[in-house]
Amino acid sequence: MSWAAHELESYVLQKHVKVKASYVALLFGCLLPDFFTKLPVYGLHIGNLELIKASTPYRYHRGWPGVGPTHSLLMAFVASLLALGIWKNRAWCVGLLVGTTAHVLTDTFDSVGTMIFFPFTTQHYSTDMWAYASQQGRYGDAAAYYSSLGGVWDVFWFFVVLTGASVLSRRYFEETVVPNDPGAWAWLQRTFGMNNSALLAAYRAWFIYGACRIVAWFAWARLLNPARGTEVIDLSWGGPYWVQKVSYPFPGWGTFALHTVIGVVGWTITVILGWRLFGRRLWDRAAAHEVARAKGAGPSGPARDVGTSA
Q1: What is the C-alpha to C-alpha distance for residues 90 and 183, in angstroms, rounded to an integer?
Q2: Which of 2, 134, 155, 310 is the most exposed place for a label (fewest CB within 10 A)?
């Protein structure tokens, strides 16, 4: 799924997560699996030079050997524990966990899918809704994505955000977003001299940016693409038919079920042990740190100043 949709899903998650979660961490988590790995998928182009280009993009991006483990549930768990240990912030822990998990699961909709239960199994999970076409390059991938159910998927997330548009309101920002993570917004206010309206604009900016990306890529794929005459819209499952589609072979239901059981059991045991050995201790330490920080901030501290109406 596109980065635009990953950006928009952060607002949906913020609205529906029922525990205290940092929006900044949610957004970062929604982008994290691709954040340090996406560049070699398309390559870096300087003039006629092509640099940092993976020879087989889908194997590099989602497979093993490769950076496919970034698209796994264990990655989400480890990232959340690291945030808890480094920043002693439970809202960041929850935000990263939820955001990264969402990215891992929503990327299963293309034809390559993700290794959800790595390292316990390298089984790929995919609904095959649209063709993975990163091997076609940035523009070829965009043409395929926005001429198929991939583009529909982006529009779906756009309208899901709009149906809960209160998440973009000033009131929601002041009463939910800032109190969930006052430190991040206070840091922005201090570092860049941003007033409350500027902070609200920064919060809304990701929605505007994601929406504009969807509109712009749709316009290019269907109006400006030189090959748009042959690259027609194909809304069939797994389309478009004209793209060089890639996927991992299905191993058969018996093997698939066995790998899934191994993956679920291995992941569950690891998470339980990780939580009991490290997570609970880090969580309690973060809770104590947050209490001490709140007391130190006082009534005029940053947690009280940021996000209040001007």
Answers
A1: 12
A2: 310
Closest Cα to residue 27, out of 211, 286, 205?
Answer: 205
Question: Containing H/E element for 9?
Answer: helix 3-16
Reduce the secondary structure of 48-79 to three states and give it as a string.
CEEECCCCCHHHHHHCCCCCHHHHCHHHHHHH
Helix (H) or strand (E) holding 86: helix 73-87
pTM listed for this prediction = 0.93
Q: Is 179 exposed, middle or buried, given 0-12, 13-18 or 19+ CB atoms closer than 10 A? A: middle
What does the pLDDT look like over 230-269, one tens digit per residue? Answer: 999 999 999 999 999 999 999 999 999 999 999 999 999 9
Per-residue tokens: 249: 């072979």
> Which residue reads 């959800």 in tokens?
116
Total residue count of the chain as it appears in this document: 310
- Planar angle of CA 71, 184, 297, nearest 5 degrees: 140
CA 213, 171, 297, 91 dihedral sign is negative
User: Locate tokens 């939910």: which residue?
Assistant: 176
- 46: enclosing H helix or E strand: strand 44-46
Letter string b/e over residues 62-75, b meaning 16 or more CB atoms within 10 A of that residue's CB = bbeebbbbbbbbbb
Is residue 200 exposed (0-12), middle (13-18) or buried (19+ Cβ within 10 Å)? buried
- Contact predicate 309/196, CB 8 Å: yes
Q: 228 Cβ partners below 8 Å, 6+ apart? A: 143, 221, 222
- pLDDT for 130-185, tens place per residue? 999 999 999 999 999 999 999 999 999 999 999 999 999 999 999 999 999 999 99
On whether the CB atoms of residues 222 and 146 are closer than 8 A, the answer is yes
